[in-house]
Specification:
The structure holds 2 protein chains of 2 kinds. Helices cover 46% and strands 15% of the residues of chain A. Chain A is an alpha/beta fold. In chain A, strands 3-2-4-1-5-6-7-8 form an 8-stranded mixed sheet, with helices on both faces. Chain A is elongated and about 65 Å long. In chain A, 52% of the residues are buried. Helix content of chain B is 49%, strand content 13%. Chain B is built from 11 helices and 8 strands. In chain B, strands 3-2-4-1-5-6-7-8 form an 8-stranded mixed sheet, with helices on both faces. In chain B, strand 2, helix 6 and strand 3 form a beta-alpha-beta unit. Chain B is elongated, with a radius of gyration of 22 Å. The chains are: A alpha/beta, B alpha/beta. At the A-B interface, helix 1, helix 5 and helix 8 of A face helix 2, helix 6 and helix 9 of B. The complex binds guanosine-5'-triphosphate (2 copies) and magnesium ion (2 copies). One magnesium ion (MG) binds next to helix 4 of chain A. One guanosine-5'-triphosphate sits at the interface of chains B and A.
């Protein structure tokens, strides 16, 4: 961005700005809108700090969330968070990190291993539960995920657990029967624990491109997502997809994953995110 | 779809005989946007559009073919050309076991793909051994063990140790048991993690795999070029396997990876089950990409 300073805001400058944003996965439409706004306000002027501030603010305005990274909690009884997303996005690992974080408020945590499909899925969550020092409810392989969710809710109520986090199997939003399965899990939870799930978090891989928007759209239609956990931001992908997702679907980013360790979860900071996007 | 988009943009060509630079600009902008929306890397799109522009300008308008169909055909053929040639065969060694090493970013589908390859090769009469060299991810070894069990394919595991040693010991095991193909499952890693990238080059030096495959998630956006590029520089890849193509991802990463590394895409993953692997079909890939 420093390299922009002193340049005339002409067609070639606007093309470079467009390239920067598209390469950050901001997408054609959202980029087009931002470039048009810059052209409106700065055409033929000299690029300087104020132009950079302008672009920063355009992006930050889109990403800001008055609720910040606070997660909704139940008035009374267990709080339930449902975690979903496509295959390999980082759901199970993010749940481990979230448990670690929520535990620090002296809350009792219970995890539900509702991925009964993939090889060693519950073993994986079980190891993480052990490391986080929290309990786990799992079913037998191939069991109906909704029945595991049902049992987990029973235990959360019986033991007066503060937070129940439900892990689900990865699935592509194009797999209708799997989206129905996910809706069934959500319905079981909301019937057993009124007012739940208190958050439905969509886990998105920062390396994903424009398909993430489709994911957000369909998962939200299906189970009412309330926020995003954006993972693998410790790589080189910028995760610009969250800009369009906020703009078109309204989902705020709650947390970002920045590594494979149990402490590698940070509350979403729009300012830091935008700085990294533009660098 | 692409044809409708172009029809909107270049409907006015019909009166003319030749596609000139001026009258195809709108059409080409539509193609460019479509490729960017399909997640093809920005630089790759720029270079590609320059090539297409050259081919399109001066092309005679065929009377019976609508101009937008012609541009789509030029783009389509140029893309198919870039994505090929297709070679789903694996060159097997004729002295000792053939070693295949799978690598890639976290969650791209390596472990599942190792299972798919084992199943495919067993069906071809080979005797594969799966090697669980991911000692870092919780239950990764168990995941591969379960996959092996499901397929009736042996799995070499060590619960603790060093991934390089596990790979070497895995090959020794194959030699001992007269198994002719070794499939190494490695831990997901970032191309910017020097220590873990070094681990891969150490495995390559010690084990000398006959084939190194980069497993790439078809959902990948602009970053595909960085990750594939660095893996290729470190390991000189023999092939790319594109996973999760059973969704509605346009898969532009395929073009980016091919263009930047020159490495052929050999197989695609079309689902979670172990029979969901196919040889790469450039025509179908281009159809999916152009939406
Ligand atoms: N570098 C990095 N890796 C991550 C991050 N989050 C998750 N991973 C890794 O991504 C891989 C997949 O993570 P999982 O938690 O198994 O993903 P998942 O969504 O539960 O996968 P499925 O259940 O199979 O759909 C693992 O190797 C994780 O260690 C992150 O923030 N950074
Ligand atoms: N739909 C679909 N899912 C796939 C495909 N290939 C793998 N998966 C799923 O993607 C997720 C990740 O697969 P893994 O095989 O664990 O990925 P990995 O690369 O070994 O992950 P790490 O070892 O953590 O880096 C799992 O849920 C798989 O079932 C595919 O072709 N299509
Ligand atoms: Mg999982
Ligand atoms: Mg794996």
């Amino acid at each position: 961005v420093r390299s922009w300073f002193g340049r005339k805001v002409d067609a070639s400058f606007l093309e470079d700005l467009e390239a920067r944003l598209i390469q950050a996965d901001v997408g054609v439409a959202a980029t087009g809108r931002i470039v048009a706004r810059v052209q409106e306000s700065f055409a033929d002027k000299t690029a300087g700090e104020d132009l950079v501030e302008f672009v920063r603010n355009e992006l930050k305005a889109l990403l800001d969330d008055p609720r910040k990274s606070t997660l909704a909690e139940a008035e009374t009884g267990p709080t339930v968070y449902l975690i979903a997303g496509v295959n390999g996005s980082g759901k199970t690992t993010s749940i481990a990190k979230l448990s670690q974080r929520l535990k620090e408020g002296n809350r009792t945590i219970l995890l539900a291993a509702c991925d009964t499909f993939r090889a060693a899925a519950s073993d994986q969550l079980e190891i993480w539960a052990g490391r986080a020092g929290v309990d786990l409810v799992k079913g037998s392989p191939g069991a109906d995920p909704a029945s595991v969710a049902h049992d987990a809710c029973d235990r959360a109520l019986a033991r007066k657990i503060d937070v129940l986090i439900v892990d689900t199997a990865g699935r592509l939003h194009t797999q209708q029967h799997l989206m129905r399965e996910l809706e069934k899990v959500r319905n079981v939870i909301s019937r057993k624990i009124p007012g739940s799930p208190h958050e439905v978090l969509l886990v998105l891989d920062a390396t994903n491109g424009q398909n993430a928007i489709r994911q957000a759209e369909i998962f939200t239609k299906s189970i009412g997502c309330t926020g995003v956990i954006l993972t693998k931001l410790d790589g080189t992908a910028k995760g610009g997809i969250v800009v369009s997702i906020r703009q078109t679907i309204g989902l705020p980013v709650k947390f970002v994953g920045v590594g494979e360790g149990i402490d590698d979860l940070q509350p979403f900071d729009p300012s830091a995110f935008v700085d990294s996007l533009l660098e | 779809d692409m044809q409708k988009r172009l029809a909107g943009a270049i409907g006015r060509f019909r009166a003319r005989g030749i596609l000139t630079e001026a009258n195809i600009q709108d059409g080409l902008k539509e193609v460019r946007d479509a490729l960017l929306e399909a997640d093809v890397n920005f630089q790759v799109v720029q270079e590609f559009m320059a090539e297409v522009g050259k081919k399109a300008v001066g092309a005679q308008l065929i009377r019976s073919v609508r101009p937008e169909q012609q541009i789509v055909k030029i783009v389509h053929d140029e893309l198919v050309n870039l994505m090929g040639p297709v070679d789903p065969t694996i060159r097997f060694s004729n002295s000792g076991p053939t070693v295949l090493m799978l690598c890639g970013l976290q969650g791209s589908g390596k472990t599942t793909t190792c299972g798919k390859l084992a199943r495919l090769l067993a069906a071809q009469g080979r005797k594969p051994l799966l090697v669980a060299a991911d000692l870092q991810r919780p239950a990764a070894v168990e995941q591969l063990r379960l996959i092996g069990n499901q397929l009736g394919v042996p799995v070499y595991t060590e619960e603790k140790g060093d991934p390089v040693a596990v790979c070497q010991n895995g090959v020794a095991e194959a030699n001992r048991r007269n198994l002719d193909t070794v499939i190494l499952d490695t831990a997901g890693r970032l191309h910017v993690d020097d220590e873990l990238m070094n681990e891969l080059t150490r495995i390559e030096k010690k084990v000398k795999p006959h084939q190194v495959y980069f497993v790439c998630d078809a959902l990948t956006g602009q970053d595909a070029v960085s990750s594939a590029g660095v893996f290729n520089e470190a390991l000189e890849l023999d092939g790319v396997i594109l996973t999760k193509l059973d969704g509605d991802a346009r898969g532009g990463a395929a073009l980016s990876v091919k263009k930047v590394t020159g490495v052929p895409i050999k197989f695609v993953g079309k689902g979670e089950k172990l029979d969901k692997i196919e040889s790469f079909d450039p025509e179908r890939m281009v159809g999916q990409m152009l939406g």
